[in-house]
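As a warm-up, study this chain.
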Amino acid sequence: MAREEILVVDDEAAIRAALRLAFRRENINVTEAADGREALELLRQRHFDLVILDVMMEEVGGYQALQTMRARGDLTPVMMLSGKSDEMDQVLGLGYGADSYLTKPFHISVLIQTAKALIRRSRVYSHAGERELRLGPFRVDTLRMECLKNERPLSFTARELSLFRFFMENAGRVFTKEQLYRQVWDEAVVDDNTITVYVKRIRDKIEEDPKNPRYLKTVRGIGYRFDMEEEGDG
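Now compare it with the structure written out below.
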């Protein structure tokens, strides 16, 4: 199997060098970019398995680069790095389509394991086989990596699609936030806020009334369930 390719985007040369050395020990290739503009050009030219993207950069910042990627239809997994630990900054990054968000300072070992999990999860869903998932008005095309409702495409990010697909494959079952995080994020450390953000974003796209969901329901005190029943308990 070919070695994984990661694009590290940070305006601090010391951080890029540290990550390059750490990933080299894991037999993972690293390409460096000093700002979002350089990163976007590299993404036009080559395929990467993961982008590690700093938020604060002088030229094109991380949020702007991420928005441009998603607008292009580029679903490469993205891990955001930021010195900002405020919850709203994390929500903003996830809202723009990031798959993970780490705050500085971070432990290299945690970053590496998170990166590996993102790459592994992306490859599983990219090579899942020639089949479709159908449930009620929804259809997931696992080859094109797209979801449709009543044959109209829904604008999902890669991680949103992974989570929605998991719900469809397990319709009727109740999952805690911890179970969802382990199954879809493939990480041991559970971030309740991340699950909440993604569930809200999916509801905004699949529900006629997201505040009174018909499909993706909250089971109070436990977690979430996806089904086709008429009445939602929100």
